[in-house]
Amino acid sequence: MNTSPTTSMPRALPPEHREQLLKLAREVSIPQGTRLFQEGAHADRFWIIRTGTIALDMHVPGRRAAVIESLGHNELVGWSWLFGPHAWHMGAEATTPVRAWEFDATAVRTLCQDDPAFGVNVFQWVGDIVAHRLRSARTRLLDLYAPYGSGGMR
């Protein structure tokens, strides 16, 4: 199996921008059970999963954190680093051992500012991911609550 970053990197970025981004990557191993970040903490990095699974969760007062979504191979973990105020909207925990590329958020934001074409593509890539996750969350909410809705539409 080829583990070259360019073969595993999400294809949403043009090849030249993938290469620029990967120059900032650091390979990391994350043990199962490791908290990557907590809701409300400063978002100073992000990851692209190579292997393993990471659960996104939300704090529920008086209860265990509620898992919102599980992410795996080639998926972006964290988008709060790109949008002010750069604070995590959720928490994240490795549910299996994970290998990932880790990126310093400040370095990537600086590259986005220095190279506007790169910045547009990164914003589009992350924006598409956020939009997809929002649609998925809405569908899950409908699946959960549709039978208990306020009645039929007229």
TrEMBL record:
Residue ranges occupied by any Cyclic nucleotide-binding domain in the UniProt entry: 9-111
The organism of origin for this protein: Streptomyces hokutonensis
PANTHER family, per database record: CRP FAMILY TRANSCRIPTIONAL REGULATORY PROTEIN (PTHR24567), HTH-TYPE TRANSCRIPTIONAL REGULATOR ARCR (PTHR24567:SF74)
Domain of life: Bacteria
Lineage: Bacteria, Bacillati, Actinomycetota, Actinomycetes, Kitasatosporales
Gene3D superfamilies per record: Jelly Rolls
Protein's recorded name: Crp/Fnr family transcriptional regulator
